[in-house]
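BUG: 3D viewer hangs when loading the predicted structure for this chain

Environment: internal workstation, default settings.
Expected: structure renders.
Actual: progress bar stalls at 90%.

Input used:
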Amino acid sequence: MDPIPLPSHVHYELLLQLLERQTTLAGDRRPIIQEQVQQLIVTLRKALAQQKHLEQLCERHQIPIEYRWSLNDSESASSASKDFLSLGQE
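Structure tokens produced before the viewer hung:
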């Protein structure tokens, strides 16, 4: 059975950090913008929770998951993640 491709959790984390640390500060004096940013943060947190629920379902049904870092094919994505991880070891 082919694995189900899912976004790596780091994608959610990156977006949340950007919104919480930078976008929130930039929109600090604009209540309408601030409210929309907060709604976006809540939506992303819900999306991550839904993905984790899907992962649990797949695990229960023994369906493999493959985390993706990009839209490229899995072979390229796999080598890209290895390259990324090896950068920190140099």
